[in-house]
Request: fold
Amino acid sequence: MPKSPKPLKEIITIGVDSSTTNCGVAIFRNGTLVETCNFTFPGTYDLDKLEKIISVFDKLFTKHKPQMVILEKPAPVRNSKTLTALNQVAGAIWATAAMHGAFIDDMHNKIIKKVMGIEGKHDAIRKVKESYGFEVVTDHEADAVLTVEAYRIHMSAQSID
Reply:
């Protein structure tokens, strides 16, 4: 009797739209959107908040075991304190993903908007509804979804060139 083929390993990709107050997350299983969520981090940005962000993402990555994590790279800001904080949050998420063995990359939000043909928050939410039939609660979740989709499209186009 022939053996049945080995089931393919699930590929989990997590998209993240990060900031010091909200982090939108989109979870894809084998390219299919299965879940979105938004984590809020109220209060003043400090090391305690950064530790909380690390803890939340450690639990998320432990639960879902992603092979790939794609972060939305924020647009540059003029305020150096804000820029430092955003870079620290992104760095903490990168480090946490790396500790879980995930491949990590990012994509600039301007490229995401261009690839996905969106301009603002409402466009992002509408695009997720139209493309995936998913009702997201926040634009952060929508941005996380579109980060993964734009990355997939952009990288596919790059490999063809």
Q: What stands out?
A: The chain has a mean pLDDT of 91. The two ends are 45 Å apart (CA to CA). Residues 12-155 form a domain with the Nucleotidyltransferase; domain 5 fold (CATH 3.30.420.10).
